[in-house]
Amino acid sequence: MPHHRVAVVILNWNGRAFLRQFLPGIIRNSSHIADIFVIDNFSSDDSIAYLREHFPTVRIIRNESNLGFAGGYNKGLEEVENDYYIFLNSDIEVTAGWIEPLLEFMDIHSEVAACQPKILSWHQPQYFEYAGASGGFLDQWGYPFCRGRVFQVIEEDCGQYDTSIRVFWASGACMFVRKEVFRKAGGFDNDFFAHMEEIDLCWRFQHLGYEIAVVPSSRVYHIGGGTLPKQSWRKTYLNMRNNGLMLIKNLPTHRLPIVLCARLFLDLAAALKFLADGGFRNFFAVFRAHASILRQFTRTLKKRKTIKPNDKAILYRGSIVWAYFIAGKRLYSELDLRKFR
Known about the structure:
Number of strands: 13
Number of helices: 11
CATH superfamily of the largest domain: Spore Coat Polysaccharide Biosynthesis Protein SpsA, Chain A
CATH class of the largest domain: Alpha Beta
Shape: globular
Low-confidence stretches: none
CATH topology of the largest domain: Spore Coat Polysaccharide Biosynthesis Protein SpsA, Chain A
Largest sheet: 9 strands, mixed
Structural class: alpha/beta
């Protein structure tokens, strides 16, 4: 039986160094209000032995293979029965009182399936962190960005995004989720392995009639890029492939053909940019991603039947690529807020 209503659930894969660095603070700032779990994704380091020796109060769930972010959480969470889950990356430093604002918000707002805190950079604490910042959005062509981060431009946090608002996606680095809605939606998509799975999940929550929010009164600090570095060709491949699969699964039927056609050209442009910058492996990763999308196309279309896509999600009804590269809008605050609907 759960001791608390909230479970902090950390997915670990060969992350002993991060556990050693951040778990003491997580326990200190969380154990009074949450049960703490580590799901181990078949680590080959001594993470498990280290946890047992130094953190006996942490509950360990062991997966029999490395199932990636999506599959690792799905399998491990079968054993977690708390009302709320907090998915927390192992490379995050939490702060005193970080859970209370999130829990209070979710208790008040029954229409919200998931939320996130303000996510700041551990390396540069005055700046937002790339993966989440102060809430995530998706433009009408499927490109993600954040309130506080558009493409590679990361803003300094001056309190400009401290209001709680409805967003499109909450970051998988630190996401607060209702267990019953997570299970109702079918959890993460195992086929994604890693990257974009939280955006896909949040989109499916919205198809079910729920909302996603950011609660900036809670804040955490994220190292980021802990498993795959930013310039990794594998990261390019997973992001491009999963973005395509997500669009095929979730776009309303009337939008699907035009968006997929547009993305073919936009992704080709991205590939040529990689090539011009000397990123040969990233260049080929784009084509590998599209080949994988084609192989999974029929299977992904079948998923649409269970998802039943609709137009309830809060999209940016414009092009973030156009706004950034052509119109020169580098900050979230410079975007036309009337297009968020």
